[in-house]
Amino acid sequence: MTKNAIYAQSGGVTAVINASAAGVMQGCRDFPHQIGTLYAAENGILGVLHENLIDVSIESDETIAGLKTTPSGAFGSCRYKLKSLDENRKEYERLIEVFSAYDVGYFFYNGGNDSADTCLKVARIADEMGYPIKAIHIPKTIDNDLAVTDNCPGFGSVAKYVATSIREAGYDLESMHKTSTKVFILEVMGRNAGWIAAACGVASEEQNEPPHIILFPEIIFDEDAFIRKVKYAVDNYGYCVIAVSEGIKDRYGMELSASQHTLDDFGHHQLGGVAPIIAQIIKKRLGYKYHWAVADYLQRSARHIASKVDVEQAYAVGYEGVRLAVSGAHAVMPAIRRISQNPYQWDIQAVDLAKVANYEKFMPRNFISEDGFHISDACREYIVPLITGEDYPKFENGLPKYIRLKKHFVAKRLPPFSK
Predict the structure, then answer these.
(1) Per-residue DSSP letters for 89-131?
(2) Which CATH number is associated with domain 3-143+304-359+390-400?
(3) What pLDDT shows up at residue 261?
């Protein structure tokens, strides 16, 4: 029997999450006997709860193709974590009510760790209530911290961006350091896992090339050892370039930049602002002139320099998610598997979502140098294939040409939802 489908995007967006959306959209069109109408929920799971559904069947093939080169979340995202079934059964019953009203038999949720948890909860409540649906989690996160999968769509492009940026900034500092700035600090995202900071490391091919120091969340910040490394770099190279993850921690396990009074909607401490803290430590201890920058949204939205491999993988997990669903798979995630390193080859395999939700993949210790301030050769070998190749968007009047969806909302069939 033909059933309809709902697709939604969740969590922090990436340069290639829309490529996954394109994969889902094209996949649904390629299985017309199993999937009827594909709806996209505006702003993630909230769009399902509030019945804000977009009929994407009216979008042209050209628009779908354009999504592959458009950054951000085309349908809107959200940071909203469903509570447990015991805490708020009403939300789950509402989801099933919406699925039933629109004859939905397939649910594709595109996101990271917390989104995997949401998708698994939806799958379990549907099973408990006897509602026939295939729930598939489509992986995405620049943090690269999803379990089981070799890497996460979104990471390759942010890795390419930060490595390029810190290499270019390093050239700038090298040309100015004799009469001006001695230290440059680039703050990148990464709460508990230092994959993005590690990506900066591939910019240096020789010991004297920037970044000279990388600060990882997995390595406790030792101020004295750090200052010695900064002084060594300035004494020997004339300048020091530093990549720092926003989630680095002190010896008590507290993030240096955490605001103890601000939480996001997932219950995490709001991070950001560790670069000026590091800069002030250097100024106080060594007196060097410094500059710092925070990559922030720039790193995750930089579609103009996306990794070709990343784009291909993002599209593939979206399409494969649909194929798995129509084949009968449920509560799974299409994960990327590295088949060989040289030449780099990969494929996709379905993994049990229970093995992904609420798990984090941290940097292995052997991916970090012995002194804890840089990456190892093993880490470089892991990252380089993921940033290889370019997939430029079309340009018009000197700027990238991105697409906008028509976003045709369907008429609501249910009463408004209230908690």
Answers:
(1) HHHHHHHHHHHHHTTEEEEEEEESHHHHHHHHHHHHHHHHHT-
(2) 3.40.50.450
(3) 43
Give residue for tokens 């993988």. 313
- pLDDT tens-place string over residues 282-339: 999 999 999 999 999 999 999 999 999 999 999 999 999 999 999 999 999 999 999 9
Distance CA 346, CA 333 (A): 16
Contact 409, 52 (CB under 8 A): yes
Q: Which pLDDT value is given to residue 81?
A: 84
SS3 177: coil
Candidate CATH numbers 3.40.50.460, 3.40.50.970, 3.10.490.10, 3.30.830.10; the one for domain 155-300: 3.40.50.460
Tell me the C-alpha distance between 110 and 14, whole Å: 11
Position 169 pLDDT exceeds 90: yes
List Cβ neighbours of 258 (8 Å cut-off, separation of 6 or more): 269, 270, 271
Token digits of residue 157? 């492009």
Q: Which of 33, 36, 21, 11 is nearest to 106 (CA)?
A: 36
Catalytic residues: 143
